[in-house]
């Protein structure tokens, strides 16, 4: 070692010419997987096979591993798939609350909209036991409107499986999108709105004939 703490290395110059190899992949499966908020590949094929999206290409690969999905779709424990009842026409709405105290006003807004669009009345509301749902104002409003309450047992989200599975699907998409594009976490609300919009446009087992609009 020299006085300036550098090591001298003896090397031989190679006479071989270097080569640079480049691989071009024209498959767009991963691109459309990301565009649709990391929708599973079976869902993408359903969109294509049923001509539900104009300009969607065919997907030749089904065994692609998306590392962003692996990071964004991890779960703590499984939620049972079966529930006692669920709607035959599935659609999702999302309301972003700054404070839990806003829950009642947003529920009133949702109730009015849902009843106007469906010509039906809200008869039952199933929620967890969050403080926003068991406040005296919320309870009294439901009594006045004749809405039956179904509250889950504490720390048992499985009893509200339909909502919990939808929440998990939405947040899986949100985390995957944020990780994939390195988007700041402060934009997660925009990602939630986009995920719900995409899910409302994608096929589901209860209604595979939904049109993209």
TrEMBL record:
InterPro entries: GAG-pre-integrase_dom (IPR025724), Integrase_cat-core (IPR001584), Retrotran_Ty1/copia-like (IPR039537), RNaseH-like_sf (IPR012337), RNaseH_sf (IPR036397). One of its GO terms (molecular function) is nucleic acid binding. Residues 125-213 form the Integrase catalytic domain. PROSITE patterns: INTEGRASE. Pfam families: gag_pre-integrs. SUPFAM superfamilies: Ribonuclease H-like. Gene3D superfamilies: Ribonuclease H-like superfamily/Ribonuclease H. It comes from the Eukaryota. GO terms for biological process: DNA integration. This is Integrase catalytic domain-containing protein.
């Amino acid at each position: 070692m020299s006085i300036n703490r550098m090591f001298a290395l003896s090397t031989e110059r190679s006479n071989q010419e270097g080569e640079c190899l480049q691989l071009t992949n024209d498959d767009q499966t991963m691109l459309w997987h990301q565009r649709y908020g990391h929708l599973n590949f079976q869902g993408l094929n359903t969109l294509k096979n049923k001509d539900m999206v104009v300009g969607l290409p065919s997907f030749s690969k089904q065994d692609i591993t998306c590392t962003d999905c692996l990071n964004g779709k991890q779960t703590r424990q499984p939620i049972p798939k079966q529930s006692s009842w669920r709607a035959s026409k599935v659609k999702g709405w999302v309301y972003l609350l700054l404070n839990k105290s806003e829950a009642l006003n947003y529920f009133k807004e949702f109730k009015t909209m849902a009843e106007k669009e469906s010509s039906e009345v809200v008869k039952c509301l199933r929620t967890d036991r969050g403080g926003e749902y068991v406040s005296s104002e919320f309870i009294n409003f439901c009594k006045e409107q004749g809405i039956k309450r179904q509250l889950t047992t504490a720390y048992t989200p499985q009893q509200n499986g339909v909502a919990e599975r939808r929440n998990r699907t939405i947040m899986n998409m949100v985390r995957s999108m944020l990780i994939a594009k390195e988007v700041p976490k402060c934009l997660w609300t925009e990602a939630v709105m986009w995920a719900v919009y995409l899910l409302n446009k994608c096929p589901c087992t209860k209604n595979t004939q939904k049109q993209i609009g």
